[in-house]
Design brief:
- Helix 1 packs across helix 3.
- The termini are far apart.
- Helices cover about 60% and strands about 0% of the residues.
- The chain has four helices and no strands.
- The chain has one domain.
- This is Phosphotransferase family enzyme.
- It comes from Nonomuraea fuscirosea.
């Protein structure tokens, strides 16, 4: 294995993988990074399930974290980091309404 690896030991237990991957993305976006799509594929290869459903859950989890939990932390980011977050939230919103047109 090579490259950057995230290890989250804040809490351990059975939970939603989409929450963990979404949270890592939220933390990485201000610095211009994202979780590799290979992480999603590796999770699905190991645990099974619908790729489309998991990707929707991941998208919605990330968007929810940005909307409901991220704003108090905005002051700790640079103007460039905040701009990257705005761009990511705009992308996630557009993607959500593209793949779930009935939600408009």
């Amino acid at each position: 294995m090579s490259g950057l690896v995230f290890c989250d030991w804040q809490s351990a237990g059975i939970g939603r993988a989409s929450s963990d991957l979404a949270f890592v993305n939220v933390r990485a976006v201000p610095d211009g990074a994202l979780v590799s799509p290979a992480a999603t594929i590796a999770y699905l290869d190991r645990c099974g399930g619908s790729r489309a459903a998991f990707e929707r859950a991941l998208l919605l989890e990330e968007l929810a974290i940005f909307v409901f939990q991220w704003p108090p932390f905005a002051a700790y980011n640079t103007a460039l980091g905040i701009s990257r977050v705005h761009d990511r939230v705009r992308y996630l919103s557009e993607r959500w309404f593209t793949i779930t047109p009935g939600w408009r």
